[in-house]
């Protein structure tokens, strides 16, 4: 099973700042990359998917993918206290369907 | 529309008991996945169905774990002779196609084995 690495945090940012979450993976075959948000005691919620190199923006969220460096990131602009959660990076496995998850980065947005 | 539903939401079992966890995927989703999430960890893949066919069960931790999806819709994950190490949240996800597509998770079943 290929590894997906994330800094566990906690990452603390002030309200209104940009939060930057990073993820590295170790399988050059991977084609699909996802960011999930998980609030404490809840299940993962899909917030972004990205399939090709470059940036993908959706509202306050931007996903960045660099396949050559095996690196995917998530930027959250104008961070809000409601963004405080664990963010999981997921990469499709070499089988193409199952997802390999990192352990997640805990984000705390302080008012 | 309705999302993925799971039942029960919480299950407490005595060691050695059998349990059955149910997942009802998003209507029309052909792909269904089971994951196990331990506290402080990311979800770990258990098994995958495309319609009624179980295409991958490589993540099932032992032969005490069994999953089925007989009619290509609802799925059941069964754990026989539960052990304390089986305590975790069991997550079901569905997707509109099998490869590389977005997976949507249900609320999970929190299993505690005493």
Share of helix of chain B, binned: under 10%
Instruction: Choose one word for the global shape of chain A.
Output: globular
Bin the strand percentage of chain B. over 45%
Provide the low-confidence segments of chain B as ranges: none
What overall form of chain B do the CA principal axes indicate? globular
Q: Number of helical segments of chain B?
A: 0
Mean pLDDT of chain A: 93
Name the pair of protein chains with the most residues at their interface, and give those residue counts: A-B, 26 and 27 residues
Question: Span between N and C termini of chain B?
Answer: 37 Å
Q: How many separate helices of chain A?
A: 0
Largest sheet descriptor of chain A:
6 strands, mixed
Mean pLDDT of chain B: 95
Percent helix of chain A, as a range, is under 10%
The main pleated sheet of chain B reads as: 7 strands, mixed
Q: Which range does the strand content of chain A fall in?
A: over 45%
Uncertain spans of chain A, ≥5 residues at pLDDT below 50? Answer: none
Number of strands of chain A: 11
Q: What is the chain-wise order of helices and strands of chain A?
A: EEEEEEEEEEE
Q: Briefly note the structural class of the backbone of chain B.
A: mainly beta
How far apart lie the N and C ends of chain A?
Answer: 39 Å
Radius of gyration computed on alpha carbons of chain B: 13 Å
Quick recap:
The complex is a heterodimer of chains A (111) and B (114). By secondary structure, chain A is an all-beta fold.
What would you say this structure looks like, in words?
The complex is a heterodimer of chains A (111) and B (114). Chain A has 111 residues and is mainly β. Chain A has strands at residues 4-5, 11-14, 19-25, 33-38, 45-50, 54-58, 61-66, 71-76, 85-92, 99-101, 105-110. In chain A, strands 2, 4, 5, 9, 10 and 11 form a six-stranded mixed sheet that branches. Chain A has a five-stranded antiparallel sheet with strand order 1-3-8-7-6, with no helix packed on it. In chain A, strand 4 and strand 5 (45-50) form a beta hairpin. The model of chain A has no long low-confidence stretch (mean pLDDT 93). Chain B is 0% helix and 48% strand.
């Amino acid at each position: 099973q290929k590894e997906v690495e994330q800094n566990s945090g906690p990452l603390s940012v002030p309200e209104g700042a940009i939060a930057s979450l990073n993820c590295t993976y170790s399988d050059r075959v991977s084609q699909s990359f996802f960011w999930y948000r998980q609030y404490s005691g809840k299940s993962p919620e899909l917030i972004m998917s990205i399939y090709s190199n470059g940036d993908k923006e959706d509202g306050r969220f931007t996903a960045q993918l660099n396949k050559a460096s095996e690196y995917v990131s998530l930027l959250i602009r104008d961070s809000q206290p409601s963004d405080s959660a664990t963010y999981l990076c997921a990469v499709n496995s070499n089988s193409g369907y199952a997802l390999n998850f990192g352990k997640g980065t805990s984000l705390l947005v302080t008012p | 529309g309705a999302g993925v539903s799971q039942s029960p939401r919480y299950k407490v079992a005595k060691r050695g008991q059998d349990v059955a966890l149910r997942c009802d995927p998003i209507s029309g989703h052909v792909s269904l996945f089971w994951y196990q999430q331990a506290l402080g960890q990311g979800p770990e893949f258990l098994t995958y169905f495309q319609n009624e066919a179980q295409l991958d069960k490589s993540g099932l931790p032992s032969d005490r774990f069994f999953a089925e999806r007989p009619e290509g819709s609802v799925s059941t994950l069964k754990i026989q002779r539960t052990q304390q190490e089986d305590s975790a949240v069991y997550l079901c996800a569905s997707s509109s196609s099998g490869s590389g597509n977005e997976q949507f998770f249900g609320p999970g079943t929190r299993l505690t084995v005493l």
